[in-house]
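Researcher: Here's the sequence for the chain we discussed earlier.
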Amino acid sequence: MSVRTGLVGVAVMASVTAGALATPALADARGAIGDGHRATQRAMDAAVAAGVPGVTGQATDKSGTWKGTSGLGDLRTDTPRGDQDRYRVGSITKTFVATVLLQLEAEGRLSLDDTVDHWLPGVVTGHGHDGRKITVRQLLNHTSGIYNVTEDKGFQQTVFSRDGFLRHRYDTWSPGKLVQVAMAHKPDFAPGTSWNYSNTNYVLAGMIVKEVTGHSYADEIRHRIIEPLHLRATSLPGTTVTVPRPASRAYSKFPDDPDKKTYDVTELNPSLASSAGEMISDSADLNRFYSALLGGRLLPAAQLAEMKKTVPVPTGKGEPEVGYGLALMRQKLSCGKEIWGHSGGIHGSSSDAVTTRDGRHTLSFNFNGDWTGDSQSVIEAEFCPK
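Model: Thanks. This is the structure I predict for it:
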């Protein structure tokens, strides 16, 4: 979607020319493309031409399922991207976490109006932060004002700089440590008075799931979502550094690298993302999840309505209007269609998963590079083909 959400805010914004990568051959899948998806394939090809190593995606609509790929999954071996690739989905994890919390609310085990301090006493405190004045709802829609851990300069140096990442890519980060880093800063604003995307919000949300249930957010997601929906490619790896096969390699360019090289960043310890973005999935599973969610199969009507109550998101001049609900983003496209979903970024991986209001037309796709590529054009091409 037009507002990029993820953990790699520094790396994603790096300005690198497309010529820094050798241009891989485009996957020639056109013989199997239905008319309704030709524009989507062209948009994927354009992303590769702009420098993205490879793209994989899948769409489902009234005509069935379409799979598309373009470019390479491995620059060393010239292996094409696969249409069943698993990949790190970054902040798309947040929708799963929010769904669990809303299920718990439906069961009467917590309220969206509970304070953070009610469940995590003394955790959100210091430099003006006060968990007694912040609600669970404000965590989930990013109106808490809590400082975003990924904006911390020390965290950025350790996790997003070239030397920092290469030295610390296998380090384990506890949720408590991530929150502690954020608490060393002042809040962005008073709770409920503005909006700012903060990964710390969802680290705390995952911690609340454990306090309410006695189980980790990962266990609750597996039990409540992954297993019932038979999401066989979806996993929460914890501290496991590899991506299960089938999978392509993931690539990054570090903005502080004077040589502007392309690095293979596939292996990393995803605890740095925690419940804000550690998940691995594939396009088919993401489509099934968002279709089930918007189709009313995961939440009662009241909780789904709460999830879809949005607050305005600041966007750039000329960008489409976006609203943010409880880890669910709403956007109206150029042709007037309304879509819901989330995007996600983590080292070497940029993903989007979107669906129509009724969950009947879905699209999920991934770029295996984090520095270039127009994801919005892919979305527009699928839902508003010219």
